Amino acid sequence: MTAPQILGAPTPTARSAGLIGCTRCGRVFAPGTELCTRCGAPLSSRDPRALQRVWAWWFAGLVVYFPANIYPMLITRTLTYSGEGTILGGVVELLGHGDYFVAFVIFFASILIPVGKFLAIAFLALSIRNHRFLDEHAQHRLHAVVEFIGRWSMIDVFVVAILASLVRFDAVATINPGIAAISFALSVAFTMLSAQSFDPRQIWDE
Predict the structure, then answer these.
(1) Which DSSP category does 84 fall into?
(2) Looking at domain 48-204, which CATH architecture does it have?
(3) How far is the C-alpha of 43 from the C-alpha of 22, rounded, in Å?
(4) Cα distance between the two ends of the chain
(5) Dihedral of alpha carbons 123, 89, 96, 158, sign
(6) Which of 193, 161, 163, 170 lies closest to 54 in space, CA to CA?
(7) Where are the domains positioned within the chain?
(8) Quick one: pLDDT at residue 162?
(9) Percent of the chain predicted with pLDDT > 70
(10) For residue 154, how many other CB atoms are within 10 A of its CB?
């Protein structure tokens, strides 16, 4: 066999070798092994309902993401002022006050990252059988990035929780989380579950 033929050969997988790969640590085992001896994770070859769970969590996250951007995230009341602020409204208000860095962080973490996660998860689920735009290695890296940045989407919820717990002067000023905070937290949780339900081993299946 010549060198070009070797380079062009398909990448061998655990499944093609009759083995089961652990999705957590990557170690492979013989068929019939139930638990990974290295990390203790349950072992399975493929779950035919994995993509169904991915789409179910994806749609659930998308449904609750819309009210997270429409309804108020923060409800502020003082002696002379009462107002409600949405995510995008807060970004605009921060820009008006000259807090460009904070506005960028909120916009990036609360709008760009969630939308990017929705697009990335949908792209991965749709392209499992079609590597037309990205090869297997690029899709696997994309999945790793989606799982890594998922936790940073909660920055808005953390800010609201901290402010609501610190500002408690009932006679002077109060800050309470709005319904958007709950919707946003649910959206982040659902998209994280969607990404975790995705089996990256299916990327390498023929």
Answers:
(1) E
(2) Up-down Bundle (1.20)
(3) 6
(4) 23
(5) negative
(6) 193
(7) 12-45, 48-204
(8) 60
(9) 70
(10) 17
